[in-house]
Design brief:
Elements lengths: L2 E18 L5 E11 L5 H14 L3 E15 L1
Antiparallel strand pairs: 1-2, 1-3
Length: about 70
């Protein structure tokens, strides 16, 4: 059975450390950079996330790239 993917989207999520208590435990906030072109390269996705990091007053811990699409029988 052949299948096809459609409604493809890509986005990057940045996890920021927003607070650290006296015991060294962190509180986090995650921001998603969405609406990237399906043809966006990993480098382009990272550079876009890095631009968002540069605008934030918080320290970034991780950047996660995600591809998402719907799979249907064709």
């Amino acid at each position: 059975m052949p299948v096809t993917k459609f409604n493809e989207s890509k986005y990057a999520s940045v996890r920021f450390i927003t607070e650290t208590d006296l015991n060294g435990n962190h509180k986090y906030s995650t921001r998603r950079v969405a609406n990237m072109k399906p043809t966006a390269t990993l480098t382009a996705m990272y550079n876009t996330a890095a631009s968002v990091i540069g605008l934030s007053k918080f320290q970034a811990e991780t950047v996660v790239g995600t591809e998402q699409y719907q799979i249907v029988e064709s």
